[in-house]
Amino acid sequence: MPRYSTYPTLYDQVLQLNISKLKVWGYLEPDQLKLGTLTWSSTNWGGRKEERGSISIRVNTLDGQRPFVELDYKYRDEPRNYKVRLVTTPSNLGKGVIWYFLCPHTNKRCRKLYLIGGHFLHREAFSGGMYESQTKSKKWRNMEKVIGSYFGIDEYYSEIHKKHFTRKYAGKPTKKYLKLKGLIDSYEKNSTFDIERLLTYGY
Protein backbone atom coordinates (compact mmCIF):
# COMPACT_ATOMS: atom_id res chain seq x y z
CA MET A 1 0.00 0.00 0.00
CA PRO A 2 1.32 3.52 -0.74
CA ARG A 3 2.80 5.63 2.01
CA TYR A 4 2.06 9.33 2.26
CA SER A 5 4.89 10.47 4.50
CA THR A 6 8.65 10.07 4.77
CA TYR A 7 8.26 9.53 8.51
CA PRO A 8 7.56 5.99 9.77
CA THR A 9 4.02 5.16 10.76
CA LEU A 10 3.95 4.16 14.42
CA TYR A 11 1.66 1.21 15.14
CA ASP A 12 1.36 2.36 18.76
CA GLN A 13 -0.25 5.66 17.76
CA VAL A 14 -2.89 4.57 15.24
CA LEU A 15 -6.38 3.26 16.01
CA GLN A 16 -6.45 -0.47 16.68
CA LEU A 17 -9.03 -3.24 16.80
CA ASN A 18 -8.17 -5.74 19.50
CA ILE A 19 -9.79 -9.19 19.42
CA SER A 20 -9.28 -9.60 23.18
CA LYS A 21 -11.36 -6.51 23.89
CA LEU A 22 -14.13 -7.66 21.58
CA LYS A 23 -14.29 -10.85 23.62
CA VAL A 24 -14.38 -8.97 26.93
CA TRP A 25 -17.16 -6.73 25.62
CA GLY A 26 -19.29 -9.75 24.70
CA TYR A 27 -19.05 -9.59 20.91
CA LEU A 28 -17.69 -13.11 20.49
CA GLU A 29 -20.36 -15.10 22.28
CA PRO A 30 -21.55 -18.04 20.14
CA ASP A 31 -24.65 -17.94 17.97
CA GLN A 32 -25.42 -14.23 18.10
CA LEU A 33 -25.59 -11.07 16.01
CA LYS A 34 -24.34 -8.08 18.03
CA LEU A 35 -24.17 -4.44 16.98
CA GLY A 36 -22.31 -1.65 18.71
CA THR A 37 -20.04 1.38 18.50
CA LEU A 38 -16.36 1.48 19.38
CA THR A 39 -14.84 4.79 20.43
CA TRP A 40 -11.19 5.72 20.94
CA SER A 41 -10.11 8.60 23.13
CA SER A 42 -6.90 10.11 24.45
CA THR A 43 -6.01 12.48 27.28
CA ASN A 44 -4.76 15.93 26.31
CA TRP A 45 -2.21 18.06 28.15
CA GLY A 46 -4.97 19.54 30.28
CA GLY A 47 -6.03 16.10 31.51
CA ARG A 48 -9.27 16.07 29.53
CA LYS A 49 -10.30 13.15 27.33
CA GLU A 50 -10.69 13.84 23.64
CA GLU A 51 -12.34 11.51 21.15
CA ARG A 52 -9.94 10.27 18.47
CA GLY A 53 -12.42 8.30 16.42
CA SER A 54 -15.35 5.91 16.43
CA ILE A 55 -16.77 3.17 14.24
CA SER A 56 -19.92 1.08 14.11
CA ILE A 57 -19.44 -2.68 14.15
CA ARG A 58 -21.65 -5.71 13.60
CA VAL A 59 -20.32 -9.07 14.75
CA ASN A 60 -21.96 -12.24 13.41
CA THR A 61 -21.22 -15.55 15.15
CA LEU A 62 -24.48 -17.27 14.19
CA ASP A 63 -24.20 -21.03 13.95
CA GLY A 64 -23.75 -22.38 10.42
CA GLN A 65 -22.27 -19.13 9.06
CA ARG A 66 -18.69 -18.00 8.77
CA PRO A 67 -18.20 -15.50 11.61
CA PHE A 68 -17.21 -11.97 10.71
CA VAL A 69 -17.04 -8.41 11.99
CA GLU A 70 -18.48 -5.73 9.75
CA LEU A 71 -16.91 -2.27 10.06
CA ASP A 72 -18.75 0.92 9.18
CA TYR A 73 -17.06 4.34 9.52
CA LYS A 74 -15.75 7.40 7.71
CA TYR A 75 -12.13 8.01 6.82
CA ARG A 76 -11.42 11.61 5.83
CA ASP A 77 -15.16 12.04 5.21
CA GLU A 78 -15.18 9.03 2.88
CA PRO A 79 -17.59 6.21 3.89
CA ARG A 80 -16.02 2.81 4.50
CA ASN A 81 -17.91 -0.44 4.96
CA TYR A 82 -16.38 -3.92 4.74
CA LYS A 83 -16.22 -7.25 6.53
CA VAL A 84 -13.29 -8.95 8.23
CA ARG A 85 -13.56 -12.69 8.74
CA LEU A 86 -13.11 -14.22 12.17
CA VAL A 87 -11.46 -17.60 12.68
CA THR A 88 -10.79 -19.78 15.72
CA THR A 89 -8.29 -22.36 16.92
CA PRO A 90 -8.66 -24.73 19.90
CA SER A 91 -7.27 -23.34 23.15
CA ASN A 92 -4.08 -25.05 24.32
CA LEU A 93 -5.64 -25.10 27.81
CA GLY A 94 -8.28 -27.51 26.53
CA LYS A 95 -11.13 -25.05 27.08
CA GLY A 96 -12.98 -23.23 24.34
CA VAL A 97 -11.31 -21.53 21.37
CA ILE A 98 -8.96 -18.66 20.59
CA TRP A 99 -10.35 -15.99 18.26
CA TYR A 100 -8.44 -14.22 15.49
CA PHE A 101 -9.08 -11.70 12.76
CA LEU A 102 -8.30 -12.89 9.24
CA CYS A 103 -6.74 -9.87 7.54
CA PRO A 104 -8.55 -9.19 4.22
CA HIS A 105 -5.30 -7.97 2.64
CA THR A 106 -2.63 -10.43 3.82
CA ASN A 107 -4.98 -13.33 4.69
CA LYS A 108 -3.00 -13.75 7.92
CA ARG A 109 -4.45 -14.46 11.33
CA CYS A 110 -3.87 -11.72 13.88
CA ARG A 111 -5.10 -10.45 17.24
CA LYS A 112 -4.91 -6.77 16.30
CA LEU A 113 -5.80 -4.72 13.23
CA TYR A 114 -4.33 -1.27 12.62
CA LEU A 115 -6.02 1.68 10.88
CA ILE A 116 -3.46 2.97 8.39
CA GLY A 117 -4.37 4.47 5.03
CA GLY A 118 -8.07 4.10 5.71
CA HIS A 119 -8.45 0.37 6.44
CA PHE A 120 -8.02 -1.87 9.49
CA LEU A 121 -5.45 -4.47 8.46
CA HIS A 122 -2.64 -6.71 9.74
CA ARG A 123 0.55 -4.74 10.42
CA GLU A 124 2.40 -6.54 7.63
CA ALA A 125 -0.02 -5.02 5.10
CA PHE A 126 1.78 -1.69 5.54
CA SER A 127 5.22 -0.77 4.28
CA GLY A 128 7.61 0.95 6.65
CA GLY A 129 5.52 0.78 9.82
CA MET A 130 7.34 0.60 13.15
CA TYR A 131 6.63 0.33 16.85
CA GLU A 132 7.63 3.37 18.88
CA SER A 133 10.29 1.39 20.74
CA GLN A 134 12.02 0.64 17.41
CA THR A 135 12.59 4.36 16.77
CA LYS A 136 14.60 4.83 19.97
CA SER A 137 18.34 4.41 20.27
CA LYS A 138 19.85 1.44 22.05
CA LYS A 139 20.99 3.76 24.84
CA TRP A 140 17.47 5.11 25.33
CA ARG A 141 15.90 1.63 25.35
CA ASN A 142 18.42 0.52 27.96
CA MET A 143 17.59 3.55 30.09
CA GLU A 144 13.84 2.87 29.85
CA LYS A 145 14.38 -0.76 30.79
CA VAL A 146 16.38 0.06 33.92
CA ILE A 147 14.35 3.07 35.07
CA GLY A 148 11.06 1.34 34.28
CA SER A 149 11.95 -1.63 36.46
CA TYR A 150 13.13 0.73 39.20
CA PHE A 151 9.87 2.68 39.44
CA GLY A 152 7.58 -0.29 38.85
CA ILE A 153 9.14 -2.77 41.23
CA ASP A 154 6.61 -2.24 44.07
CA GLU A 155 3.74 -2.87 41.67
CA TYR A 156 5.38 -6.07 40.38
CA TYR A 157 5.92 -7.38 43.91
CA SER A 158 2.33 -6.58 44.95
CA GLU A 159 0.90 -8.33 41.88
CA ILE A 160 2.94 -11.50 42.25
CA HIS A 161 2.11 -11.83 45.96
CA LYS A 162 -1.64 -11.33 45.68
CA LYS A 163 -3.66 -13.95 47.54
CA HIS A 164 -5.25 -15.51 44.46
CA PHE A 165 -2.42 -14.91 41.99
CA THR A 166 -1.89 -18.03 39.83
CA ARG A 167 1.78 -18.94 39.64
CA LYS A 168 1.32 -22.34 38.03
CA TYR A 169 -1.24 -23.99 35.77
CA ALA A 170 -1.12 -27.75 35.11
CA GLY A 171 2.24 -27.87 36.85
CA LYS A 172 3.84 -25.19 34.65
CA PRO A 173 4.58 -21.53 35.46
CA THR A 174 1.98 -19.18 33.95
CA LYS A 175 3.05 -16.60 31.36
CA LYS A 176 2.05 -13.75 33.66
CA TYR A 177 4.12 -15.15 36.51
CA LEU A 178 7.17 -15.57 34.26
CA LYS A 179 6.79 -12.02 32.95
CA LEU A 180 6.56 -10.47 36.42
CA LYS A 181 9.41 -12.60 37.71
CA GLY A 182 11.54 -11.49 34.78
CA LEU A 183 10.82 -7.83 35.55
CA ILE A 184 11.70 -8.33 39.21
CA ASP A 185 14.90 -10.19 38.32
CA SER A 186 15.82 -7.39 35.93
CA TYR A 187 15.45 -4.82 38.69
CA GLU A 188 17.47 -6.86 41.18
CA LYS A 189 20.33 -7.17 38.70
CA ASN A 190 20.58 -3.38 38.43
CA SER A 191 22.42 -1.81 41.34
CA THR A 192 21.62 1.64 42.68
CA PHE A 193 24.87 2.78 41.09
CA ASP A 194 23.70 1.64 37.65
CA ILE A 195 20.42 3.51 38.00
CA GLU A 196 22.10 6.71 39.24
CA ARG A 197 24.64 6.50 36.41
CA LEU A 198 21.84 6.23 33.82
CA LEU A 199 19.91 9.12 35.33
CA THR A 200 23.05 11.31 35.42
CA TYR A 201 25.02 10.35 32.33
CA GLY A 202 22.56 8.39 30.17
CA TYR A 203 24.71 5.26 29.81
Summarize it.
Helix content is 27%, strand content 33%.
Tell me the number of helical segments per DSSP (H or I, 4 or more residues long): 4
Q: What strand order characterises the main sheet?
A: 2-3-4-5-6-7
The termini sit apart by 39 Å
H/E element order: EHEEEEEEEEHEEHH
Percentage of residues in DSSP E strands:
25-35%
Could you explain the architecture of this structure?
- With 203 residues, the protein is of the alpha+beta class.
- The protein has helices at 19-24, 138-160, 175-189, 192-201, and strands spanning 16-18, 33-43, 49-60, 68-75, 78-90, 97-102, 109-110, 112-116, 119-121, 168-169, 172-173.
- Strands 2-3-4-5-6-7 form a 6-stranded antiparallel sheet.
- A hairpin with a 2-residue loop joins strand 8 and strand 9.
- The chain is globular, with a radius of gyration of 21 Å.
- It starts with 15 loop residues before the first strand and ends with a helix.
Helices and strands in order:
Layout: E1 16-18, H1 19-24, E2 33-43, E3 49-60, E4 68-75, E5 78-90, E6 97-102, E7 109-110, E8 112-116, E9 119-121, H2 138-160, E10 168-169, E11 172-173, H3 175-189, H4 192-201
Antiparallel strand pairs: 1-8, 2-3, 3-4, 4-5, 5-6, 6-7, 8-9, 10-11
Helix pairs in contact: 2-3, 2-4
Features of this protein?
3-stranded antiparallel β-sheet, 6-stranded antiparallel β-sheet, 203 residues, globular, alpha+beta, disordered N terminus, 27% helix
